[in-house]
């Protein structure tokens, strides 16, 4: 290596060190009083930067980015937090727009006059019009309303509604709606989301709360799953047991016995080709008989929304699978 190369590298290191020292000295000067060189302190109460030695006010009217309240424990901090609601896929605008309440009262709780009520009604009308800018958003608003209505009727949790909203948004973006009804795609999205979350509902239950026929629901569901490549496992009869047992007010022993019957039937290969809802209802009825709990086939049929004939046929098969040799 030549002397020129060595000298050049040493010069670069020296210049880099000088630059760093210059920046450090500049930052130190920023923390010093320009008059006496004293230490600067930030007075957050008055929004000022003051010299601790001579009292010179270096900066004033600073923006206080902290809260205007004090909290002495985590619970008070959470209660006094003034952030808005989190964004959600359950609303067409993800909850970011303004919503005018339906109460005809002012900020003090006093009722509005008739003229003020008319003005507020006009504001609500125009606010609803402005929230949906085009046909796509109107479509999404109607569909998400349908999903929320059906999920409430079926007792599905919020996570299922969120998932169903995401599935419908994907279907809308993939242009899968032409030729199909909004209610049909919304019901299919909710049915798929419930199965993905292991809280399935039967097709009959979905049809009871939906505005579409069962045939349209099954056809639309298969189309949406195929086009969006949704990974949905076959419905497991065990996933229906907790709901049936709870609706029938049976004991935990009955639920545990019903699970044992389904596991035994699965080992014997009886579950293949059978309706999971019928198997779950039959397992609950058979388990209730084995644990000496009083429940009729009619009661189980009403809860599971299947015929009594199906229960009789399936529960006999389940009992035979238990008696069958391993």
UniProtKB/TrEMBL annotation:
<feature type="region of interest" description="Disordered">
    <location>
        <begin position="68"/>
        <end position="95"/>
    </location>
</feature>
<feature type="repeat" description="2">
    <location>
        <begin position="239"/>
        <end position="320"/>
    </location>
</feature>
<feature type="binding site">
    <location>
        <position position="54"/>
    </location>
    <ligand>
        <name>Zn(2+)</name>
    </ligand>
</feature>
<keyword id="KW-0862">Zinc</keyword>
<protein>
    <recommendedName>
        <fullName>Transcription initiation factor IIB</fullName>
    </recommendedName>
</protein>
<dbReference type="GO" id="GO:0097550">
    <property type="term" value="C:transcription preinitiation complex"/>
</dbReference>
<dbReference type="InterPro" id="IPR023484">
    <property type="entry name" value="TFIIB_arc"/>
</dbReference>
<keyword id="KW-0805">Transcription regulation</keyword>
<dbReference type="InterPro" id="IPR013137">
    <property type="entry name" value="Znf_TFIIB"/>
</dbReference>
<feature type="binding site">
    <location>
        <position position="33"/>
    </location>
    <ligand>
        <name>Zn(2+)</name>
    </ligand>
</feature>
<dbReference type="GO" id="GO:0008270">
    <property type="term" value="F:zinc ion binding"/>
</dbReference>
<comment type="similarity">
    <text>Belongs to the TFIIB family.</text>
</comment>
<comment type="function">
    <text>Stabilizes TBP binding to an archaeal box-A promoter. Also responsible for recruiting RNA polymerase II to the pre-initiation complex (DNA-TBP-TFIIB).</text>
</comment>
<dbReference type="InterPro" id="IPR036915">
    <property type="entry name" value="Cyclin-like_sf"/>
</dbReference>
<feature type="binding site">
    <location>
        <position position="36"/>
    </location>
    <ligand>
        <name>Zn(2+)</name>
    </ligand>
</feature>
<feature type="domain" description="TFIIB-type">
    <location>
        <begin position="28"/>
        <end position="59"/>
    </location>
</feature>
<keyword id="KW-0804">Transcription</keyword>
<dbReference type="GO" id="GO:0003700">
    <property type="term" value="F:DNA-binding transcription factor activity"/>
</dbReference>
<dbReference type="InterPro" id="IPR023486">
    <property type="entry name" value="TFIIB_CS"/>
</dbReference>
<dbReference type="Pfam" id="PF08271">
    <property type="entry name" value="Zn_Ribbon_TF"/>
</dbReference>
<feature type="compositionally biased region" description="Basic and acidic residues">
    <location>
        <begin position="14"/>
        <end position="45"/>
    </location>
</feature>
<dbReference type="GO" id="GO:0017025">
    <property type="term" value="F:TBP-class protein binding"/>
</dbReference>
<dbReference type="GO" id="GO:0070897">
    <property type="term" value="P:transcription preinitiation complex assembly"/>
</dbReference>
<dbReference type="InterPro" id="IPR000812">
    <property type="entry name" value="TFIIB"/>
</dbReference>
<keyword id="KW-0677">Repeat</keyword>
<feature type="binding site">
    <location>
        <position position="51"/>
    </location>
    <ligand>
        <name>Zn(2+)</name>
    </ligand>
</feature>
<dbReference type="InterPro" id="IPR013763">
    <property type="entry name" value="Cyclin-like_dom"/>
</dbReference>
<dbReference type="InterPro" id="IPR013150">
    <property type="entry name" value="TFIIB_cyclin"/>
</dbReference>
<keyword id="KW-0479">Metal-binding</keyword>
<keyword id="KW-0863">Zinc-finger</keyword>
<feature type="region of interest" description="Disordered">
    <location>
        <begin position="1"/>
        <end position="45"/>
    </location>
</feature>
<feature type="repeat" description="1">
    <location>
        <begin position="145"/>
        <end position="228"/>
    </location>
</feature>
<feature type="compositionally biased region" description="Polar residues">
    <location>
        <begin position="86"/>
        <end position="95"/>
    </location>
</feature>
<dbReference type="Pfam" id="PF00382">
    <property type="entry name" value="TFIIB"/>
</dbReference>
């Amino acid at each position: 290596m030549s002397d020129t190369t060595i000298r050049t590298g040493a010069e670069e290191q020296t210049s880099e060190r000088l630059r760093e020292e210059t920046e450090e000295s500049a930052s130190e000067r920023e923390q010093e009083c320009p008059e006496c060189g004293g230490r600067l302190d930030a007075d957050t109460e008055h929004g000022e930067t003051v010299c601790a030695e001579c009292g010179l006010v270096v900066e004033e009217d600073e923006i206080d980015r902290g809260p205007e309240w004090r909290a002495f424990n985590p619970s008070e901090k959470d209660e006094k937090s003034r952030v808005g609601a989190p964004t959600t896929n359950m609303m067409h605008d993800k909850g970011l727009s303004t919503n005018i309440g339906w109460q005809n009262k002012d900020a003090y709780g006093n009722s509005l006059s008739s003229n003020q009520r008319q003005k507020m009604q006009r504001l609500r009308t125009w606010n609803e019009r402005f929230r949906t800018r085009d046909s796509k958003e109107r479509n999404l608003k109607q569909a998400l309303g349908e999903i929320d209505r059906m999920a409430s009727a079926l007792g599905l949790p919020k996570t299922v509604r969120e998932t169903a909203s995401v599935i419908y948004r994907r279907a809308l973006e993939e242009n899968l709606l032409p030729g199909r009804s909004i209610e049909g795609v919304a019901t299919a999205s909710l049915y798929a989301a419930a199965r993905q979350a292991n809280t399935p509902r039967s097709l009959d239950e979905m049809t009871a709360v939906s505005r579409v026929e069962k045939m349209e629901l099954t056809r639309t569901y298969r189309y949406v799953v195929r086009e969006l490549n949704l990974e949905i496992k076959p419905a497991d009869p065990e996933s229906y047991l907790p709901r049936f047992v709870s609706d029938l007010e049976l004991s935990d022993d009955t639920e545990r016995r019903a699970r044992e019957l389904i596991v035994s039937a699965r080992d014997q290969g009886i579950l293949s080709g059978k309706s999971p809802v019928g198997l779950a209802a039959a397992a609950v009825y058979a388990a209730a008989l084995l644990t000496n709990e009083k429940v009729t086939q009619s009661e189980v049929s009403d809860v599971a929304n299947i015929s009594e004939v199906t229960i009789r046929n399936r529960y006999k098969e389940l009992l035979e699978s238990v008696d069958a040799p391993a």
